[in-house]
Amino acid sequence: MQTANLKVFHIGKTLSSIASILHIHSIRPFIGTNVLSATTCRAATHKINSFQTKCNSSVRYYSTMPPTQRTRGPYQNVCLGGTFDRMHDGHFLLLREGCRLCEGTLTVGVTDISMLQNKILCELIEPVGVRIENVQKFLRETKPTMEPDVVPISDPLGPAGWNPALEAIVVSTETKRGADLINETRKKKGLNELAVHIVDLVAEPCPSPSEEPKVSSSNVRQRLLGTLLRPVQPKPDLRAHPYVLGLTGGIASGKSAVARRLQGQGAAVVDCDKLGHKAYEPGTTAHGQVVDTFGQDVLAEDGTINRRVLGPKVFADKAKLQALNNIVWPEIARLAEEEIATHAAAGKSVVVLDAAVLLEAGWEEFCHEIWVSVIPRKEAIKRIVDRNQLPEEEAARRIDSQMSNQERVDRANVVISTLWEPDVTQKQVEKAWTLLQDRIQQRAEKGSSQL
């Protein structure tokens, strides 16, 4: 197999200084609108060119090809692939190398969401159309004379696995094994092997303990946690005081832990799970309706509803779950409104409406903002098994009976994740709270100026 490695060094500096030379990280706040501007593309191209010029004497190439076949390019047809989510320095260097090698068509495969479910915070990955457009813009700015072919891919090989016109592939150090697999596949199909050009990873200058040591999209997504992902939409019919945060998340997502941390920052909390218990206490209308609907066996010895008996009945049957929701949701909403009013009278400026079914029940109408707590599915299953002593199959059924993380995130203003150590969650909450206070202050100033 033909392999050519590009090694980049900078005299007197470590590799971690590359990112500080480039200075082109951009954490763009709104999901779905993160298309790179022409200015950003030009800045990235200029700084990468400047960087390569500075280190030109320290750049070296080497190849395992026989001397008579050795080549650094250029080639007519080159390919590369990746996620290209929230494009960063590593992406820019990879694409820049593709541009340097290619004189004809540069094929870029952009991974579709179907292949990204195991990525950290996959719910925050930009839509594939946005990622494709960002790559196209960067390539046009970098090498206008080249013909780019940027396509979505839903398998690990993409066009590299079947396109006979391709001559070379550009990969990073961590994706070299993918290039090996591609060449094995091409060999089986009777296609030419691709010359492989490997670009070293760019080190993250100052990663936090929860971040990767390399510059990566997952690091950028982590830094979005606690920030405003979508603008807050005005709700003229919603009273201005108190400011209500609707906090939701899937089972075992750490939502209630986030609520407690917000309480520590000064917010009042309305716990809708507890109100759910109260909604069908003995003697209430909802209590009788639950017994009539699901049978006498859901009653505990003291006459209360035994949730350990009721749970398996409703989680295994969506129709029964909806029947239970129709009984208790209206009563929970009424009780929640009463508690919010009580906190307002007590002078609380921020109230958190902590509700697992906030969006399903339509309770976002009570809230100024929607905050969502997320963790990966595998971690949620593990937590449920450990906490509830349930088999994995039952834990998975409970998760599947609820709205997905992606559906929640798509409607969220702010996202928090409890995946990492508690101090990481705390920092997210503190950041989110500080930014929230700024928004509330700006809202108050805007209201005063309109009087």
Order of helices and strands: EHHEEHEHEEHEHEHEHHHHEEHHHEH
Main sheet specs:
7 strands, mixed
Strand order of the largest sheet: 2-1-7-6-3-4-5
Query: How far apart, in Å, are the first and last alpha carbons?
Result: 73 Å
Proportion in β-strands = 15-25%
Please give the share of residues in helix.
Answer: 40-55%
The tally of strands reads 12
Structural class: alpha/beta
Total number of helices = 15
Uncertain residue ranges: 5-32, 50-64
Shape category: elongated
Radius of gyration: 27 Å
Mean pLDDT: 85
What descriptors fit this protein?
451 residues; alpha/beta; 42% helix; elongated; single chain; 5-stranded parallel β-sheet; 12 strands
Structure, described:
With 451 residues, the chain is of the alpha/beta class. The chain is built from 15 helices and 12 strands. The chain has helices at residues 18-22, 38-54, 89-101, 128-142, 176-188, 217-224, 255-265, 272-279, 285-294, 307-315, 318-345, 377-388, 392-400, 405-409, 422-449; strands at residues 3-7, 60-63, 75-82, 102-111, 147-153, 168-172, 195-199, 243-249, 268-271, 350-354, 369-374, 414-417. It is elongated, with a radius of gyration of 27 Å. The model is unreliable at 5-32 and 50-64 (pLDDT under 50).
